[in-house]
């Protein structure tokens, strides 16, 4: 047994040299995808965020919602994010979405799980769904990054996932290519629920998973549609939140 343990440790050390692992952000040698120092620096847990849209609140804010949400409340009820969409965290999103580094999706899911569980006062949804891609976009990319994140997240939280709960009815321009005031028109009436789930929406708390939230217009349109069909509450679980000053 002792010789087996020595052999196993030697084999693991040799394997680590053959397959070195480095932090995806700082590239320091590390056994985890993101090292502890980068987790502390770029994924802080103590930030005060707007509970409805996920924006970082200004110091000394004495309200749970930001000024934008107070003046123009979105249709969704709350948003939980793991980080801000800015350098260097944005590289992770780009690597998943355009670099096809699907191994990052479970990492995003684990960070989202921790962010969700950190908000102990928030109730968990009855089930999860994802922001759908259009047929052409899905064919072009080959996968839906939101679904890749949602699968492990649903397992972490012990919540059912309905991957086909929503579908996109038409092609839309990329939201990132549009001015903020044009984004609402771009996604207006672009989403519908699956016919087989219509009866399960009424009275339910539904969680929507995505990779990035910028102005929130896509998630607002989806939440508007879900509440039209009777959803009681809609929560967003998004890996990264674009800071207000960037868009």
Automatic annotation (TrEMBL):
Protein name in UniProt: ComF family protein
SUPFAM superfamilies xref list: PRTase-like
InterPro entries: ComF/GntX_DNA_util-trans (IPR051910), PRTase-like (IPR029057), PRTase_dom (IPR000836)
Family: Belongs to the ComF/GntX family.
Signal sequence coordinates: none
Domain Phosphoribosyltransferase, first and last residues per copy: 146-244
Organism: Undibacterium rivi
């Amino acid at each position: 047994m002792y010789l087996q343990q020595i052999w196993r440790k030697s084999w693991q050390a040799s394997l680590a040299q053959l397959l070195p692992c480095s932090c995806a952000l700082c590239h320091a040698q590390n056994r985890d995808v993101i090292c502890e120092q980068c987790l502390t620096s770029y994924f802080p847990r103590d930030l005060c965020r707007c509970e409805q849209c996920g924006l970082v609140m200004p110091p000394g804010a004495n309200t749970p919602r930001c000024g934008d949400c107070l003046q123009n409340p979105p249709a969704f009820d709350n948003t939980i994010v793991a980080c801000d969409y800015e350098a260097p965290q944005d590289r992770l999103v780009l690597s998943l979405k355009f670099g096809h580094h699907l191994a990052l999706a479970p990492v995003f899911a684990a960070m989202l799980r921790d962010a969700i569980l950190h908000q102990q006062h928030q109730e968990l949804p009855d089930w999860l769904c994802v922001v759908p891609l259009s047929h052409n976009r899905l064919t072009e990319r080959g996968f839906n990054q939101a679904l890749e994140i949602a699968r492990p997240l649903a397992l972490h939280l012990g919540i059912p996932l309905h991957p086909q709960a929503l579908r996109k009815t038409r092609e839309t321009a990329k939201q990132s290519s549009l001015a903020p005031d044009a984004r609402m028109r771009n996604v207006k009436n672009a989403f519908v629920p699956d016919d087989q789930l219509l009866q399960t929406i009424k009275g339910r708390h539904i969680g929507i998973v995505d990779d990035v939230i910028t102005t929130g217009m896509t998630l607002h349109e989806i939440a508007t549609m879900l509440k039209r069909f009777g959803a009681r509450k809609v929560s967003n679980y998004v890996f990264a939140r674009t800071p207000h000053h960037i868009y």
